[in-house]
Structures are given as C-alpha cells and as structure tokens.
Specification:
Length: 259
C-alpha cells in the first residue's frame, strides 16, 4: 500500500499515517518510522480500582500486555475513548528484552516508544480490543467493560505536531515543519456517525451497527433497520467507532436537506 493512501477510494477515505518514535534513554537519539493505517486498534484503559503503586508500575512498563489484559477484575469499571487515545499516544518504556540498537551509542540500549498520528484520514476508524488471548494461561475471553465515546471528537492532542510540542516545548527541532504541514491539511474536529457493536461470546456472537443520517440514528440489525434514540447509541457497547471530518459531515447533511 502506498504511503499516501491514494490507491483506491477506501484508502483515500480511511487511510492515515502513524508516526512511531523510539528514543534511546541514554543519549536521546530517536529513530522515527511512518506507517499507513486504515484503523487504529485501542486497548481499553486498565482497571482503575487498583492501588496507585500498581497503576504507576503499569504505566512505566506498558509492554506487559499479559498482566494488564488478563487481570481478573478487568471487566469492571468504565473506559473512555479519549482515555484510550491518550494511552495509545503515551510514551512507554520498552522492556529490557526489547532493547533497540542505538545508532549513536552503537550498542543496544533501553528505550522509550511513543506513537502519534502524523496525518488524519477523512474518516477515522477506531477498533476496540475486546477479544484477549493469553498464551500463559492458554485462555481467551471477551472484555465487556463499558466504553464512553464522545459524539464530537477533537484529534488535535494526538497528532504528532502536538505530541512533539509537548515533548520539546517551543524549541525548534528538525522535523517540526514537516509534522505541521502533515497535520494542517485537514480539520482535527470529527463527528461520530457509526458504531458497531458485538453481543455474545468470544466464539459466537452477533454484530449490530448504529448509523446516523441527517441527525437521526438508525439501528441496522441484519435486514431490519429501525430509528432509535441517541441515548440508545450512547449506551451501546462500542466495538468499532467511525468518525468523519465534522466539516464534511455537516456539508453532506446540508446537501441532503436541500435535495
């Protein structure tokens, strides 16, 4: 797939670009890579019922996915989409078994990794990781924790330009202009227009989609399409959420109203 995402209509609509920075904790050398993506997979926030000490330990070593994902009380509590995005773009210390080769130190060093969004798509798709697998316990399960998602979403805090500015302050760094150019071509304001839910067990279930058209929500359940109240959508257990550029959404709504 081309980095610009122009090979087909699907990529022109859904394709964005992620930035990954791996920074040496000894000398500060940073290795940067860019990858195209058509959706972003998000981990639900860790259970907030634990002690502050355990929560801090998890934030310093976010790579210990087994411990986080298979926590016995993981189904409790409430996560938010903004919290999941903050966790996705938070700097994490890689484990000692994941040392990367620093080109400046010329040896393998411990490092920090941070993800950010270099370029936003026209439609942002977020996939929530509700199916977990543990090779240690040899078990799989579905996470039923409720996820709060906003109807309007500002993606500015998760852009590479914002992440780099918070990391370096107002200092000028070599890639500053490049990141600003990549994020200014589209608005950062998005509007929710579709939510996909999954009900049932891990090995069997049913998918239902809630879709918004001209400010009216509809429930799409196989061959049945029925209008529903907005409160029904807010209470849905989100599995995938689709957000469209707010300017494009309201422009299309206006066109439908005049046709």
């Amino acid at each position: 797939m081309q980095g610009g995402g122009d090979c087909c209509i699907a990529h022109r609509v859904f394709s964005g670009i992620l930035r990954s920075d791996v920074m040496c904790m000894v000398c500060g050398f940073t290795s940067t890579t860019y990858d195209p993506c058509v959706d972003i997979s998000l981990d639900l926030e860790p259970n907030q019922g634990g002690s502050g000490k355990s929560s801090s330990a998890k934030s310093l070593n976010s790579c210990n996915v087994e411990a986080d994902c298979m926590h016995p009380n993981q189904n409790g509590g409430i996560s938010t989409l903004n919290g999941c995005l903050e966790r996705f773009t938070r700097a994490e210390k890689l484990g000692s078994d994941q040392k990367f080769f620093c080109q400046k130190c010329q040896v393998r060093q411990e490092s920090l990794k941070q993800m950010s969004i270099r370029k936003l798509p026209l439609v942002s798709c977020f996939h929530v990781k509700r199916f977990e697998h543990s090779s240690i316990r040899k078990m799989s399960r579905k996470v039923d924790r409720f996820l709060q998602f906003p109807f309007s979403l500002d993606m500015a805090p998760y852009l590479s330009s914002s992440i780099l500015r918070s990391r370096f302050g107002n200092r000028i760094f070599p890639f500053d202009g490049d990141e600003q150019d990549a994020s200014n071509d589209l608005s950062t304001e998005f509007e929710l227009f579709a939510v996909v839910t999954h009900s049932g067990r891990l090995d069997a279930g049913h998918y239902v989609t809630y879709l918004r058209l001209s400010n009216q929500w509809y429930k799409c359940d196989d061959a049945w399409i029925t209008p529903v109240n907005e409160s029904i959508v807010r209470a849905a257990q989100g599995y995938m959420m689709f957000y469209v550029q707010k300017v494009l959404y309201y422009k299309e709504s206006e066109n439908q109203g005049t046709s």
